[in-house]
Each structure stands twice: as C-alpha cells, then as structure tokens.
Amino acid sequence: MIVVTTPTGNIGRHVVRHLLDAGEALRLIVRDPSKLPQDVRGRVEVVEGSHGDAAVVDQAFRGADAVFWVCPPSPAPTPAAATVDFARPGTEAMRRHGVPYIVAVTTLGRDTPWQERAGNATGSIHMVDLLRTTGAAVRGIALPAFMDNALRMVGAIREGRIPGPIAPDKKLPHTAARDSGAAAAGLLIDRSWSGQEDVPVLGPEELSYADLAAIVSEVTGREVRYKHQTYEAYKETAMARGLTDAFAQGFVDMLRAKEEGMDNVASRATPIIGATSFRQWVEEVLQPALAG
C-alpha cells in the first residue's frame, strides 16, 4: 500500500496516475475527495482530511509500505511552520507505524553554502531532515523552479509580461511538474533503494528568465517580456497577497540564493533528467491555458 499526499496537486496528480498505471494499491489523503477525477475514486482508498492532522495521518499511514510526501503550498506564519512544523504529525505517524520508504518533494540547496540562508528552501531541507529521523529509507526529490509556475502568471502573460526579481540573464534549471511526478512514482514503484539522500530532478536545459519570455513569445505569438523588479517590490506584492512578512521574506531569501547560484551548484551526482523542455511545456500546457 502506497499513501499519496496532495493527490490533486501539481505533482501528486501525476504520481497517482503513474502508480495506478503500474497497478499499485493506493491510499490517498485528500481534503476534498470531490476534486479527485471520477476514474480515480473507484480505484483507491480515500482518507479525508489534512495530512497535517495527527488523527488523519495515524489512520492513513497504518500498514503503509511507502509514502509520497508533499507539504501543501498553504500560507503560514513562517517557512518553518509551513514545512517542518506541518510535517511533525506525519513524521510521528510514519515512525509509529514503521513506514519503510518515504519519497518527499524538496528543493535543491542541500550541502551548498546557501543551505541555512535560503528561506523557504531551507525550511524544505529541514523538513526532509525531520522525515529522516523516522529511520525509513528516504529520497528527497530535489527540485529547482517549476515550469508550471508560469500558470500562475497567465494574466500577466496575456498583458505581455513575466515579472520577477531574479536577474534577466541568470541561467537556471527548471523542471516540469509531470517529470517530477514521474520521477517520484518511479522511486515508489521500484523500492530497491536504501539509505537517505536527495536526488535532483532537473529539466534538460538551463534557461534565463529572458530566455523563458522569448520562448513564450515564439510559441504563442504574443510579445512577452521579462519584467525585472526589485526584491523589495516583489516582497511588497507577496505581502499584498496575504503572506506574512516572514513568509514573504522566505521567498525573497530563496530567490536570492537561486540568483547567487544555489541551484547551479547543488549536487548532480545522481540526477534524474526530465524529458520535457520548456518549449514543449509551453506548447502543451501554457498555450492552451492562455487560449482558455
């Protein structure tokens, strides 16, 4: 039995599809079961609620052979509250029930000079540290920026801009959520691995935000430019959306670390390279979203 958290999320939904295609028995923790596709509901066990709830995870992790763990992108007072604190009930339940394998979504940055000063990324790394205390075999799927983040900017892209504080010419890795889901599912299906380590999941190329804007322009036929903004302006916008000062600063610190090179120097000893290029992702995902 494999337990999947966030089964309707950007990554979790791909994990669920791959595991069902492989014939795996699944138990899904989901706040709103009605959001599960109809063809999924009849093939899985469902535990309704939040995986930040001690009673929910105690029920869900009983008898589990493996767990796919993601902290949801919910606003929280601090980066640590959103990651480490959120994961405490689940960690205790996995330890109590002796879950032998954990695959967790985390960030690049471990074992780099930025590990302890990268805001939200630091919180994510510490979350995996907490999961490791269970004694289970743990793989952290260490991710750079998501190509899928552009879906949050559909309105801005329609206006011809992609805003952000990272320098326009700074080349960085990007990955598609579907490739991250495929990588996680592969580890959950073939549990021949042991030990505890993070595994980078990277896209096939490194691109700057100016490059990304140019590709969006070429594919969609819309003139789109990267609108470089200050970190101060970025933080003000984040707080205007309802984030706390500490949580908004966590994003600032993470993006500064990326701009300084955190994602470029993170260990690539055993990377998983996704097949989806940004151009392909724009053609298949972003362009239909813009049209819609």
TrEMBL record:
Top-level taxon of origin: Bacteria
The record, for Gene3D superfamilies, names:
NAD(P)-binding Rossmann-like Domain, UDP-galactose 4-epimerase, domain 1
Q: Which Pfam families match?
A: NAD_binding_10
Entry's transmembrane regions: none
Q: Which parts of the sequence belong to the NAD(P)-binding domain?
A: 8-121
Protein name, UniProt field: NAD(P)H-binding protein
Whose protein is this, by species? Lichenifustis flavocetrariae
